[in-house]
Amino acid sequence: MAAVAPDASGRGAAFKTHTVFNQPPPLEGIDVFSSNLPLVEAVGREGAGWVTGRAAELGRFVGGAPQQEWGRLANENRPVLHTHDRYGNRIDEVEFHPAWHQLMRMGVENELHSLPWTSDDPAAHTARAALYMTAMQAEAGFACPTTMTFAVVPALRAQPELAAEWEPLLTSSSYDPRSIPASEKGSAIAGMAMTEKQGGSDVRANTTVATPLGSGGAGAEYEITGHKWFCSAPMSDVFLVLAQTDEGLSCFLLPRILQDGSRNQFHIQRLKDKLGNHSNASSEIELHGAWARMVGEPGRGVATIIEMVGHTRLDCVIGSAAGMRAAVVAATHHTAHRSAFGRVLIEQPLMRNVLADLCVESEASTALAMRLSRAYDEAHADAQAGEDASDAQLFKRLATAVGKYWTCKRAPNHAFEALECLGGVGYVEESGMPRLYREAPLASIWEGSGNVMSLDVLRALSRTPRSLEVFMHEVEQGSGADPRLDRSITDLKGQFSDPQTLEMRARRVVESMALCLQGSLLVRHAPAAVADAFCASRLAGEGGLEYGTLPPGTDFDAIIARGRAQT
Ligand SMILES: Cc1cc2nc3c(=O)[nH]c(=O)nc-3n(C[C@H](O)[C@H](O)[C@H](O)COP(=O)(O)OP(=O)(O)OC[C@H]3O[C@@H](n4cnc5c(N)ncnc54)[C@H](O)[C@@H]3O)c2cc1C
User: Fold this and answer.
1) Which has the closest alpha carbon to 393: 401, 383, 402?
2) Atom number, ligand 1, closest to the C-alpha of residue 228
3) pTM of the entire predicted model
4) Mean pLDDT of the region 529-552
5) What is the distance between the terminal CA atoms of the chain, rounded to a whole angstrom?
6) Could you tell me whether strands 190-193 and 238-245 are parallel, antiparallel, or unpaired per DSSP bridges?
7) pLDDT averaged over the chain?
């Protein structure tokens, strides 16, 4: 089609230098759930098939305006901090583009923040994971407050009267960004503030202090003074905060707006100028005698907030798998419509290798995320039945750390390779790939960076040695299906034999655990082509260090056909 048609006078001809061709059509209007076969199958397999219709409805919606417009607009128009109003009054308000609020509303109305806490269905976590992964195809930034609102609930239950007050608000499916008391809105969004300047991984180094307003103790009122170096989504209605008391580090619930409508002593110093995640606000805050109530026992702050941390780590796994899915869709779409050297790129043998490798990684991450979500369902059911060290609970604990380490580590290079499949335009903002790429490292850093997660695996193993048995039991369900997996399982068992060097080797050990788990899931549940490529490249050393190094015997056709979003 001609870019500019010359008019009768021929003046337009001056601009008619070329015809645009060999460019892909826009990828619009797809059902981002139903076209994601590895996810659709995993949802059914892990017990949440009932959510398929609902997820497809969300998938169709997300493939429209959220994916085409909202994500871009919310990122291009970054949040702006207003510390004061025009008269000089302190207001601590962050102004967002309307697209941010549309994304937040979509998340809340689809219960991404609440489903497991409001539904009696035994697979509610798994169902939520499917909805979450679907919504994240539009944009990842709003996942942060969505996740924190989801994750705060189990931690809050440590203080039943606070849970009774706040849980109905936190699980409401209406979104209201106004700075008024949450009880007036009937809904609430939550954040968390642990990290301080002198320590994030090592939160016991926190210097923020909580002083009791009365006799103190669990559920009592305190005043909190100090700072937090990272506090994302600072427009949230309520935060879990760690602060020191006489008894040690304790956990507090701190509302941003007090019951009388006044602002708590919660001051936003500045917003972080982040690598990515631009739609979302992350801030530095100071607390000047802010009113809060203690959650859980004094001195048990880490033990209390760890429930929230654990659930955010689950979402780091789901979110990383979601990012990989978006990368696969973009790369396969572009290469299916772009030719070079006389052939459509998706038919060029070496490009097929890259695409298939990206598809395999994406499917392995999706399978792990969904299996892990089922573990949350099962662990929750066991807890309801009064158990506290069931197999599901031990698997959940260990596999969360393993999965968080590995899927989050694999995401950035996966995004980069997908970006490169688009060539130069992949490096240009309009393609959406830079946004995906910049987002990718965040889940790995947040809530336990790579080393911290690896050490967390060792901690879980040393506290409950039986958790390794439970983990291996899951992995060994794939035994006998592929000798390369069998050998890897044997090798993994051997890696625990020298405890002296275990800490030094922790990353390698955790990587092996993750690969065995993913391999086991794929040999049991994925098409043979996917499982075979995974075992060859990830377990038997027949692949290289970069994507696009699958061995020649790989069934590239089957893998790519499965990974592509059929429009
Ligand atoms: C965009 C963004 C949003 C965030 N939002 C929030 C938020 O809302 N609330 C909040 O509380 N925090 C938030 N954080 C903070 C985040 O959780 C911390 O940055 C993270 O936990 C790491 O802490 P740190 O930055 O102090 O790094 P450090 O703890 O100093 O760690 C630096 C490095 O050392 C490694 N390391 C640490 N201990 C060991 C060890 N024993 N052995 C080997 N290596 C080790 C870590 O893995 C890391 O690679 C956010 C961070 C980002 C980037």
Assistant:
1) 383
2) 11
3) 0.97
4) 98
5) 23
6) parallel
7) 96
